[in-house]
Design goal:
seven-stranded mixed beta sheet; Circularly permuted type 2 ATP-grasp protein; alpha+beta; about 35% helix; about 425 residues; Dna Ligase, domain 1; 2 domains; four-stranded parallel beta sheet
Length: about 425
């Protein structure tokens, strides 16, 4: 893990009088230390392995400094999440979105889906929802960060990091148990399989280990498995001699289309296993084309969305539209105004800022299934560690379940998209400024 040395690691009494923008520019007194992070991660049996993996594989997983938001920005993000949830609950929305989705997305398993991630950029007096994810990683890493952190005089709840982390972990376990019940089960949840392709090679594999030990502390056996190791047999999903109760899905094959995912797909469609998150959740929330619908006032009105809710959506989501050949000339002429994302994309892959586009990449966009989103410049945080850039970008991620925010984190980075490879960057604590 990176060294989190800062210009001043002590408390700054003057910070209490500063607003969020000023704190992001000048506050250096709430940095976690590498030693405190290692201690927070090593509390349980897998801890030493987790720390070693992070140091070796992803040393820039945790940012050197926290991020501050204003009370107004926090309130706007909460209102926007509520507005989106209100719209997605409408039968008319679901009918419209699922009509164009693969057939598997129309299967309703009952479960809601864990770890929705609402990602925001912030302006001086504005917020912009740039995307929604349905298998957002990092929640347990942020719990460790909370345990390791300390705050400054601008943060009222700075001393409660350990308590906040414990509350988040308890909420996560209860969320999985709620998914189990919503999937129609009444017996206690006993086994969870965490699935991803070649999980040990995944960048966030250390978090899989944290989940395994969290579930174990709550008497739930958890295995970390490549889905090709599962088998669908005799009406159950098996891993070896173990019947799988629930699958925590970290796959980016959102519709389970790959041949190696056939057993999981068949068990899911037969309601033989509780899968969370699932294809229906991705289609309703995370397909990037939904952002175009959420910023189309006429279509929203036709779906029965109230004027007040439409106003929240249109003011809080940067205008988004599907890239169509008929609009190619206009979009090319105004490239600098747009960010282009694949409809089924994730993690910034194959996404392009318009002003960085080559002719070849533009042709790939026209040949693919892309949306164009009006650029909202991400906010900045002054760097605070050795080797870090002077200025770093950040976005805000709210983790939600059943429409309720469980945790809010920041991702600090340099470059086109979040990457967890920037010195001084990574996941950061988010505090609401009191000044």
């Amino acid at each position: 893990m990176q060294d989190f040395a800062t210009p001043d690691s002590g408390f700054e009494p003057g910070c209490a009088t500063l607003d969020a923008a000023q704190l992001n520019a000048s506050c250096f007194c709430a940095a976690p230390s590498a030693a405190a992070l290692a201690e927070a991660l090593q509390q349980h049996s897998d801890g030493p392995e987790v720390v070693a993996l992070i140091r070796e594989r992803c040393p820039h997983l945790f940012a050197a400094l926290p991020v501050f938001v204003s009370p107004g920005q926090a309130a706007r993000m909460a209102r926007l999440i509520g507005a989106v949830e209100e719209v997605i609950a409408l039968p008319a929305w679901q009918d419209a979105v699922l009509a164009d989705a693969p057939p598997i997305a129309r299967h309703d398993p009952g479960a809601r889906g864990v770890f929705y991630g609402y990602d925001f950029h912030l302006g001086d007096d504005a917020v912009g929802l740039i995307e929604i994810n349905t298998n957002a990683g990092g929640a347990l890493l942020n719990a460790a960060l909370a345990r390791a952190g300390h705050g400054c005089s601008a943060i009222e709840d700075a001393g409660n990091g350990a308590a906040r982390a414990l509350a988040l972990e308890d909420a996560i376990v209860e969320m999985f148990r709620a998914e189990w019940r919503l999937g129609g089960r009444s017996a206690p949840l006993r086994t969870i399989v965490i699935v991803d392709d070649e999980p040990e090679n995944q960048y966030l594999y250390p978090e899989f280990l944290l989940f395994r030990q969290l579930f174990a502390r709550h008497d739930i056996e958890a295995l970390i498995v490549d889905p090709s190791m599962l088998r669908w047999e005799a009406g159950s999903l098996w891993r070896g001699d173990l019947i799988v109760d629930l699958v925590y899905n970290r796959l980016t094959d959102f519709m389970l289309a790959a041949p190696g995912h056939a057993a999981l797909r068949d068990a899911y469609l037969a309601n033989a296993v509780v899968l969370t998150p699932h294809p229906r959740a991705h289609a309703l929330y995370a397909d990037k084309r939904n952002l175009a619908l959420l910023t189309d006032d006429a279509r929203l009105a036709a779906l029965g969305v109230s004027e007040a809710t439409r106003a929240i959506l249109l003011s809080g989501i940067p205008h988004t539209e599907q890239v169509r050949a008929s609009e190619a000339e206009r979009l090319w002429r105004t490239l600098r105004d747009w960010f282009f994302k694949p409809a089924a994309g994730y993690g910034g892959r194959a996404a392009y800022r318009g002003d960085k586009l080559t002719k070849r990449a533009w042709q790939d966009i026209l040949d693919g299934d892309y949306v164009a989103q009006a650029i909202m410049v991400p906010p900045a945080r002054t760097g605070g560690s050795a080797g870090a850039p002077d200025q770093l970008k950040f976005d805000i991620r709210s983790y939600t379940y059943d429409g309720q925010v469980q945790w809010t984190a920041a991702r600090v980075y340099q470059g086109q998209t979040t990457n967890f490879r920037t010195p001084g960057g990574g996941f950061a604590m988010v505090y609401t400024a009191q000044g």
